[in-house]
Write a structure and sequence with these properties.
mainly alpha; two-stranded antiparallel sheet
Length: 168
């Protein structure tokens, strides 16, 4: 019933090896029912499929907006490492959640959820690397994701150029 996430993450790793992902999910959903800590609910969400995990994490973060580790996890859901191929919207989401993560870290709302500060350091290191890669990304390109231009009418034809921020 303590609000530390690192023991949960280590225990989940062990459970996934011993029981598989489904077995770990069953254990955690039983634990969640008896726990007084919102961290148990949070870590149970991490065992869901990606689509459900993202949806439930967003709802969880609405209830717990001061929970720094939650924004780190949400940022990972939109990262190239998780998705393989990122769209511009994915990059914008990843950057938005990383910014919130760093803001909460500056306010002291990250380290208090870790017994093992080296795990928190790994979170920060990972987030810093990803944020560095996203520094040049400007979310304002999402305002006009598709552009169309015309060179006009020539030789009985119109020439249109269509460009998209993501692969078509």
């Amino acid at each position: 019933n303590l609000d530390y996430i690192d023991p949960h993450l280590r225990y989940q790793r062990y459970l996934k090896i011993q029981e598989g992902r489904e077995g770990a999910r069953e254990v955690y959903f039983e634990m969640k029912e008896d726990s007084k800590s919102f961290v148990t609910e949070y870590t149970a969400l991490l065992l869901l499929s990606r689509k459900m995990r993202v949806k439930k994490l967003k709802k969880f973060m609405e209830k717990h907006p001061e929970f720094g580790p939650g924004y780190f996890e949400l940022s990972k859901e939109f990262s190239e490492a998780r998705l393989g191929e990122q769209t511009a919207r994915d990059k914008a989401s990843e950057k938005k959640y990383l910014k919130k993560f760093f803001e909460l870290h500056e306010q002291g709302k990250l380290l208090k959820y870790f017994m093992d500060k080296s795990m928190a350091s790994n979170f920060l290191s990972n987030a810093e690397k990803r944020m560095t890669a996203l520094k040049t990304f400007d979310a304002s390109i999402l305002e006009n994701p598709v552009t169309v231009s015309s060179t006009g009418y020539q030789n009985g034809m119109f020439n249109l150029t269509i460009a998209s921020i993501d692969e078509a």
